[in-house]
Amino acid sequence: MGGIGKTTLAEAVFNRLSSKFEACCFLRNVREREQKDGLEHLQNTLLSQILKEEGLCIGSTFVRDRLGRTKVLIVLDDVNDSMQMEGLVGNRLRFGNGSRIIITSRNRGTLRQTVEEDKIYKVGRLKRDDALQLLCSHAFKNTRITDYKGLAEKAMHYAGGIPLALILLGSSFLNCKSKEDLENELEKLKQFPNENIQRVLRLSYDGLGRNEKEIFLDIACFHKGHDVDEVKQLLNVRGFFVTVGIRILIDMSLISIDSRLGQETIEMHDLLEEMGRTIVQEQCFEDPSKWSRLFNDKDVYHVLKSNKVRVKCTQFFFFLFVEKNTCESQLY
Q1: What is the DSSP letter of 239?
Q2: What is the pTM of this model?
Q3: Cα 171 to Cα 184: distance, rounded to the nearest angstrom
Q4: Within the chain, where are the H helices?
Q5: Is residue 178 predicted with pLDDT exceeding 90?
């Protein structure tokens, strides 16, 4: 999951331990840089930083011998393909005794192809007190926190322990001049999610295959918090490859399986749910009848009342009104 702090944690470890190694390299944004410059360019960058020379070839016996005698600390940041790991630190390369390699990735499945399962660490969300401290340090630098503690708690709940979200929200609050401004900024998020947060989270969604994208959107719109077996049945009816799709979404930390009271439910971070629904709404902000999914009762009512249901809308909630202010719902 983007923004959870993988790079920050790896950087902290790198800075703390780098003095204990003969050579070090922190290779940032591997996914993005490989797409832009190619794997060979990344290999050359790695060699030049480790061996302090330019124009070296990773395939030469001379270079491999030197690497084999050098105790190195290498960080590969944001890897999304096993070929990147193989090309940069794979089995054909040998480093000196005591060398350490740290790899960050949004996809546990990618790491699993090269790294043993018990050596993979999942970065968790910040605990409540730490999250509140991080938010307030960016939002209320020159103001007493106690004056806005209630609003800070609401913002912290919205961010859900994701460090990047807390920092960006805090920065957006910094320009608010009054308590009313802060309340308005929080209220605005309900209709207009923070674009910078969405952009980071969207990278994980964009890296999915079509099958996984469709399953993710269905879960975001309809199935969060529901029984796993029931959700799988509904997704199977839709013609998706559910078993592999669910596994990939879990590996990407886009969903999780929660076990409580003997029941397994599908869970999703609130910001990811918000992102999924925004992706659907982006299909046509002005006309919900053009969305692939309808998940809001008001939108369903509007579309049905105006008789504008189209073939593109594949799922919606059908509401059976029992009394004036109550209703039961069923997914179709």
Answers
A1: T
A2: 0.81
A3: 15
A4: 6-17, 30-37, 39-51, 61-68, 82-89, 108-112, 128-139, 149-159, 163-173, 179-191, 195-206, 210-218, 228-237, 242-251, 270-281, 297-305
A5: no
